[in-house]
Design a protein that fits this description.
12 helices, eight-stranded parallel beta sheet, single chain, alpha/beta
Length: about 300
């Protein structure tokens, strides 16, 4: 199956190498393997949380090969390949296919603002044509707070009409759940993932196929347990705790907060550095975040590494 499996994905952080300060493929794989061991359906590296647009293109091109060599299943990884340049996005997406994978999470071109829908359509048109593979599955990435270039229902319908199954779905990181449901109704054979696991169970009940979330880096086991509890008496309590974890972490810059949590888990501050223009949490932020998470333990199991 070439499409991504339905379920819960962690939008993985990108660890840096302690010696060089450069992104580390080895540590990324180890972290992704741990997320899978916690019960996650899959991982989504090189996205916003993974500092994808701060990473060197050379590193982004190498990552699919690392996942191939580590034995990850093609339907369990969705690689971020978006770029302001359609040429760079095409190269990054082709690297995904060359490594034996099919699923790419693609931001619209995000530097120029207030561009017409025709321009965004042309971007995806050129990317898909440039990759030139019927097996490609594109997941549109709707994150208007950062991209300032929204994915619209009409754009989805145009792309589906033109490219059919190549346009496989969408990740909605807008936080607007009503808008998420509009995307669910936009087209047939179109898988919508919420960008927040706070909407996990409600989304599943209303046509979403799962979540792709930053904070699942910290709450992987809890996220998986909530998914598996769907329809049982435990589900609501698990969702309540999961939402509380999400709310506690999302008060801070996500990449920095999630790397700080990994540093606490490993008792290793080399997890903390982020790429420019990001900055690490200051001491006050660290203290506030730790207090908030400790108040949720042991139900959340966020700071302690299983």
């Amino acid at each position: 199956m070439s499409k991504a499996a339905h379920g819960v994905y962690a939008a993985s952080i990108t660890p840096l190498d302690p010696a060089s300060g450069q992104p580390s493929g080895k540590r990324l794989i180890e972290h992704s393997q741990w997320l899978m061991e916690q019960g996650m359906t899959g991982v989504a590296p090189l996205g916003t949380t993974g500092e994808g647009n701060s990473l060197p293109l050379s590193f982004r091109l190498s990552v699919p090969g690392h996942f191939r060599d580590a034995g990850f299943s093609a339907d369990k990884v969705i690689f971020g390949t978006g770029s302001c340049s359609v040429g760079d996005a095409t190269i990054a997406t082709r690297a995904v296919l060359d490594a034996g994978f099919t699923n790419a999470l693609v931001l619209p071109p995000f530097y120029y603002k207030n561009v017409p829908e025709d321009g965004v359509f042309s971007y995806f048109d050129q990317l898909i044509d440039g990759v030139g593979a019927d097996s490609l599955r594109v997941y549109l990435y709707h994150f208007p707070q950062l991209s300032m270039t929204p994915i619209t229902v009409s754009l989805i319908q145009r792309l589906k009409n033109q490219f059919g199954p190549v346009i496989a779905g969408l990740k909605d990181s807008s936080g607007d759940f009503k808008g998420t449901l509009d995307f669910v109704a936009a087209a047939d054979d179109f898988d919508v993932f919420s960008g927040s696991e706070a909407f996990l169970l409600e989304g599943l009940s209303k046509g979403c196929v799962g979540s792709i979330s930053a904070t699942s880096n910290a709450s992987a086991a809890l996220t998986a347990a909530t998914l598996n509890a769907k329809g049982t008496t435990k589900a609501d309590k698990l969702q309540e705790t999961l939402t509380a974890v999400r709310e506690a972490i999302s008060k801070y810059p996500l990449s920095a907060a999630l790397k700080q949590i990994e540093a606490w888990r490993h008792q290793d501050d080399s997890w903390c550095p982020v790429l420019p223009p990001g900055t690490q949490l200051n001491q006050s932020q660290q203290n506030e975040l730790r207090s908030a998470l400790e108040a949720l333990e042991p139900d959340a199991s966020v700071i302690s590494r299983a």
